[in-house]
Amino acid sequence: MEKKGSYGILIILMVGAFIAILNSTLLNIALPSITKDLGIETSTVQWLTTGYMLVNGIMIPTTAFLIRKYSVRNLFLTAMLLFSIGTIIAGVAEVFPLLLGARMVQAAGSAIMMPLLMNVLLTSFPVEKRGSAMGLFGLVMMFAPAIGPTLSGWIIEHYDWRMLFHFITPLALLVLVFGFFKLRDHKEKVDIHIDKISVILSSLGFGGLLYGFSSAGSKGWDSPWVYGTLFVGAISLVLFITRQLKMETPMLEFKIFQHPMFALSATISIVLNMAMFSGMILIPMYTQTVRGISPFDSGLLMLPGALLMAFMSPVTGKLFDKFGARILASIGLLITVVTTYYLSKLSMETTYTHIIILFSIRSFGMSMSMMPIMTNGLNSLPARMNPHGTAMNNTLNQISGAIGTALLVTVMSNRAASSAEELMTKAMSKLTSQPTAEMMGQMKAQIGTQAMLDGINFSFLVSTFIAAVALILTVFIKRAWPAEEKPVEKKKQTA
């Protein structure tokens, strides 16, 4: 049941999680500035985001064990301390290796925050009120990464890139101090030990898949680094799952997929995540590369959608408690499918306002779908499985995001390449005389821009079909209650 003290803990945890998630997208727009300032290659600077994601992917599967072993207070303070140390070092780093190391320390702290917050929400509120609680969690999960590019664009335009870390440092330290004095939960000593082989297999499995898929967009699928790490990741993951199923106390419990509604919600979330990343990646590509809009204005374009998601998340939570997941997810995904389809019709004349409206309505649809689906799945698990459910959800979100990114960037690149070839053939066939070098340069630039636009539009069309798969799956959603917590009067409620 919910306790008065739970709200204080939740506020501290939510602010900590907000800062940690905000930091994951804050650096993306700053990468060109860091490349220039530190005199490094673009492929090298990408490790600031790839390394952060890899550490998250390796750490998150261990959080189920950490949550069962240690108290919320100890875990939160450790996570915020790691995050604060990483932020301070990154803010003063003058060389890339130190900056990368600091970023990975940040990621180690950040990875613990999300599963910890989700688990506290699940244990602090009864099933019939979890929708409202998870709505608040959705506010953090959706708003923080969405506002990151806008905030980052403004800071980079006015200050040095190090200000991104200096801005976060006092907030992180403040949350750490509040947590130290306000968090007072105690936990009996639990005699469980982590299996070292499971940690190694998990790190190779999830880390390999994340690195392979996230590198495919830039390196290409034929790169030995890509298919090599994907192969190692897949084999390690199979061995990891096999080992977990045989263990009496697994590091990560895969038997939770025996609960049909959790398995369904995980599947829909994976598909929806893949579709969601199309907007986060393709819209900045369109605005900056095709239309030449500044990074700050590109980030600003996404702000109304982010604010709408933040506003809607608690509202959706309350609606979930009343109506269940199926109707909310169906309406939300229908909106997502329609708006994603219209985003596949972008042109060189599409107005800035038109993109803002489409992206905002799409964000509205996403906010109606994501948290209800995830909450319904977690509600189907027994209380003792909550740490495993939250760890599994967060791990799958990381991997599906990487797969979605790799898939859609590959689709875009291949379509752009074939489109450029067709456009060049057509252009050359219309010429009546030998073009000058200047004319050829202008023609190639125009064709390159048009081909990129064709690639982005086709990628959005593929994303429409991916979202449509998630929409079809919502038909099978039923209202979920853990067997031991199912209230008698709730049994007659429909999905």
Structure description:
- The protein has 495 residues and is an all-alpha fold.
- The chain has three domains: 1-192, Growth Hormone, Chain: A, CATH 1.20.1250; 195-250; 258-495, MFS general substrate transporter like domains (Growth Hormone, Chain: A).
- The protein is built from 18 helices and no strands.
- The radius of gyration is 23 Å and the shape is globular.
- The chain starts with a helix and ends in a 22-residue tail after the last helix.
The CATH architecture designation of the largest domain is Up-down Bundle
Work out the count of structural domains.
3
**CATH fold-level name of the largest domain:** Growth Hormone, Chain: A
pLDDT < 50 runs, ≥5 residues: 1-5, 487-495
Mean pLDDT: 82
Note the overall shape: globular
Q: How much is the radius of gyration in Å?
A: 23 Å
The CATH H-level superfamily of the largest domain is MFS general substrate transporter like domains
For the record, give the distance between the C-alpha atoms at the N and C termini, rounded to a whole number: 23 Å
Instruction: Please report the first level of CATH classification, the CATH class of the largest domain.
Output: Mainly Alpha
Strand content: under 5%
Largest sheet: none
Classification by helices and strands: mainly alpha
Tally the beta strands: 0
Helix and strand run: HHHHHHHHHHHHHHHHHH
Count of discrete alpha- or pi-helical segments spanning 4 or more residues: 18
Fraction of helical residues = over 70%
Subcellular location: Cell membrane
Membrane topology: Multi-pass membrane protein
Family: Belongs to the major facilitator superfamily. EmrB family.
Protein name: MFS transporter
